[in-house]
């Protein structure tokens, strides 16, 4: 019943391309009751709030306001999308030092306001900054969640749907590892409907080749570069992915999503945040799902973890 539901509150920190697109998705999908926007650029935030509020009559009754860190006190979720984005040619890992510095002060400010909810992190490099947020906040690991490879997995499913001319909702597969250049496609577990992708191709697309599938993965991995070259930022798809993750949490959906979370022995990895399938609920990350990987996929995941740990060294002791 709508009457006895406790209103939920989401605070977004960083309302540039990603943060403002996420706010727009939340309102359009009727996901939250209260939405607070925080950014260093106060004029931009106020302008966004006016603009979003004027759309509320067409969407759902959401209270939107420009706020400050004290608004985090009773928030259910704090979503961080603040910080530098990649310039053409820059990798996500190139952003590490700049954004880690910004994160230290943001997370400290949020925790000073006695925040006791769940963090979602999207700023890049997302795996490293999720780990940083977990360390800086002192919250249990299940309550600090990175967007991980949710976007890469969506790109993978979309491009395979186009290739097979099928509804993307019938494509089941994951991209795991770093949200970045060392991510990997889990072909051994990719299914179309309930059929393994290779068998499906043999039966229904015999002219298809493994090389074409490999090129699809390369386009998934490099999608951010392709978009940034053309328009300077990527934001709509990640905003929708963050809205999906927000729904999974606030509505206690127990959804399996490829988020960035702390591995503690799963997949033979330890003490880093990395993209893996995990069950997400009102408690945050309930548990990691350990799907069977073949030998090549295991090696690729280990390599991805190794690159992430190396990249983290200058910033953290890992
Ligand atoms: N995880 C993912 O799949 C994706 C992550 N991203 C990442 O999201 C981040 C944001 O990207 P954009 O929105 O395109 O950048 P943007 O430059 O448009 O927005 C960043 C915002 O952060 C604000 N900001 C900076 N320092 C702040 C602080 N200390 N406190 C409050 N606000 C602060 C800026 O004023 C700006 O409005 C980047 O790191 C980008 O790489 C982008 C797309 C996908
Ligand atoms: C920018 C980024 O991380 C992406 O679009 O995947």
UniProtKB/TrEMBL annotation:
One of its GO terms (biological process) is glycolytic process. Residues 9-146 form the Lactate/malate dehydrogenase N-terminal domain. Its EC number is 1.1.1.27. It comes from the Bacteria. It holds the Pfam family Ldh_1_N. It catalyses: (S)-lactate + NAD(+) = pyruvate + NADH + H(+). The active site is at 179 (proton acceptor). Residues 149-317 form the Lactate/malate dehydrogenase C-terminal domain. Allosterically activated by fructose 1,6-bisphosphate (FBP). This is L-lactate dehydrogenase. Keywords: Allosteric enzyme, Cytoplasm, NAD, Oxidoreductase, Phosphoprotein. The gene is ldh. Substrate binds at residues 86, 92, 124-127, 152-155, 234. It is found in: Cytoplasm. The keyword Cytoplasm applies. GO terms for cellular component: cytoplasm. The modification Phosphotyrosine is found at residue 225. Beta-D-fructose 1,6-bisphosphate binds at residues 157, 172. It comes from Alkalicoccus daliensis. NAD(+) binds at residues 14-19, 39, 44, 69, 83-84, 99, 105, 122-124, 147. Pathway: Fermentation; pyruvate fermentation to lactate; (S)-lactate from pyruvate: step 1/1.
